[in-house]
Amino acid sequence: MLQEAQTVATGIAGADIALAAKYIAAGLCMGIGAIGPAIGEGLAAAHALDGMARQPEMQGALLRTMVIGQAISETTGIYSLLIAIVLLFVV
Amino acid sequence: MGEIYRQLGGLLEHLGQKRIAVLHLFGAEIRFDVTAIIMSWIVMALIILLALWLRRGLRQPVEDKPNRVQAALDMLVDLLKKQLADNFASERLAAMMFPFVSTLFLYVLLSNWISIVPYLSSPTQDLNVTFGLALLVFFISHVLSIRLKGVRRYLKGFAEPYPFMLPINLVGEIAKPLSHAFRLFGNVLAGTFLVTVVTAKFLPVVLPPILNIIFGLFFGAIQAFVFAILAVAYINVAVEE
């Protein structure tokens, strides 16, 4: 008599693959997403420093504008962080 | 030593949980996040109480030397007026919108700062709060635009400078409140999250106050200022000729 073949679970199941993929995706998302804002904010600071060196009396206005520009440039990095958090804790 | 870490582990679980109050109204359910609402009211009460308390320091004759309260409030009003309200396109608009922009700035500032107190959380940690504020700015800018330019010029403004830019302009208009809300929400949530994870998993003693100062006070103030000045910029763009 033929018995039903039993599938024995060895190795990786579907849920494990999903968990591993979640962690890898969250790490990649935040890792790659951190490159852009860092470069952009460094450029903004560099040009602000150029301006300050050229006209030291405008230091206050230049500093404020630099901070605002950097905060806006940070936005896409925050979007990546949100997606990483959602991947880790919600999905 | 391990006991402390086990107790702190509860902090992490609490981060993902929300208390939701459900209101059944005419067959539909409306859901409220109780923590955000209660903290929002606490921040509002704090602003009003601070204003009433600081008023007492202002009660002295004008000829006397300004005391500390006057000097501090002078700096605050100078910041609100010169950095925020004077960036408006016209003086009439600046005078009209000064209370709104100041309140926006103060509310977001205090709600970002209140998260450093141990058992309290920011109302701006909830996307609903930040999205509500961004929608407020969105509606104000469009209503002011219609009032100042008239309906026809307002509608024609979407087809500027070329008619094929219409979908691009529409997407841009929708993206503004979205990015406005997500920037503030993401920054505050990420700050709270980082401090909680470091406290619960890494080092509960020396590091949390330092991180709270950096993420809560410094970045919170910067994000509040960026929120307010972007509100000014959006209203300016909507109203410009």
Descriptive report:
The complex is a heterodimer of chains A (91) and B (241). Chain A has helices at residues 14-33, 35-54, 59-73, 75-89. The radius of gyration of chain A is 24 Å and the shape is rod-shaped. Chain A has 91 residues and is mainly α. The two termini of chain A are 45 Å apart. In chain A, helix 1 (14-33) packs antiparallel against helix 4 and helix 2 (35-54) packs antiparallel against helix 3 (59-73). The longest helix of chain A has 20 residues, at 14-33. In chain B, helix 5 (127-149) runs parallel beside helix 8. Chain B has one domain (2-239). Chain B has a two-stranded antiparallel sheet with strand order 1-2. The mean pLDDT of chain B is 88. The interface between A and B is medium-sized, with 13 and 17 residues.
Q: Which key features would you list for this structure?
A:
heterodimer; A: mainly alpha; F1FO ATP Synthase; rod-shaped; B: 241 residues; mainly alpha; two-stranded antiparallel ribbon; 2 strands
Task: Give the averaged pLDDT of chain A, no decimals.
Answer: 87
Counting DSSP E segments of at least 2 residues, the number of strands of chain A comes to: 0
**How many domain regions of chain B?**
1
Query: How many runs of DSSP E, i.e. beta strands of chain B?
Result: 2
Radius of gyration of chain B (Å): 21 Å
The assigned structural class of chain A equals mainly alpha
Percent in helix of chain A: over 70%
Identify the CATH class of one domain in chain A. Answer: Mainly Alpha
Spatial ordering of strands, largest sheet of chain B? 1-2
CATH H level, superfamily name of one domain in chain A: F1F0 ATP synthase subunit C
Distance between the termini of chain A: 45 Å
CATH topology of one domain in chain A: F1FO ATP Synthase
Shape type of chain B:
globular
Percent helix of chain B: over 70%
Order of helices and strands of chain B: HEEHHHHHHH
What oligomeric state best describes the polypeptide chains here? heterodimer
Which radius of gyration of chain A do the C-alpha atoms yield?
24 Å
